[in-house]
Write a structure and sequence with these properties.
Blueprint (H helix, E strand, L loop, with lengths): L2 E4 L1 H9 L9 E7 L5 E2 L1 E5 L13 H12 L5 E10 L8 H13 L4 E8 L2 E9 L6 E10 L12
Bound molecules: zinc ion (ZN).
Zinc ion binds next to strand 5.
Amino acid sequence: MQTLRISPAVYETLYMTVGSHPPECGAIIGAPDADPTNITQVWFDRNAGIGKAYYTPTCDRISAIVGQWMSMNNKHHFAGIIHSHHDGFSSLSSLDLRSAAKILRENQMQSLYLGLFHQKELSIFRAFLHGEEETCSIEAVHIVIDPALPHCQFPEN
Ligand SMILES: [Zn+2]
C-alpha cells in the first residue's frame, strides 16, 4: 500500500474545513513536484456546492490556485481532491469515480488522490485510469501525518 504523508497544518486545515462543514464540500491538495507523496498544500473550495448532494469544484478558482502553486520556487502541482459525504455514505460514489476519471483525462495525469471525510474520519484513495473506461480504479493509501513536512500553504484559506 502506498504511503501518503500530510503535513500537520494541511491535515488540520482539512479537518477544520471539509471535515467540519456540512457535506458535501471539498478542498484540493498539492504536493511538491520533487516529492509527489508529500501533501504540503491545501485550498478549501469554500464556494463549491455545499448542501447539494454532491461536490462540484469551482473550476476557475482552482485553476488560479494551482497556477500559483506551479509558480512557487519549490514547484507544486495539483495532487487531488478531498470531499465529504453525509452520514451513511462511507464509500466513494460512482459519480466521484467518473468525475476523477474526467479530471485525469483532461489533465493527462497518471493518478490523483481522492480523499473522503465521513463522520470526521478521513480516508484517501489513489485513483487511476483503467483503459478506456469512463470510470477509474482506486486503491487505498496509508495516511501518515508527518510533523517533519514543511507547511507552505499558499495562498491563505
Ligand atoms: Zn462523493
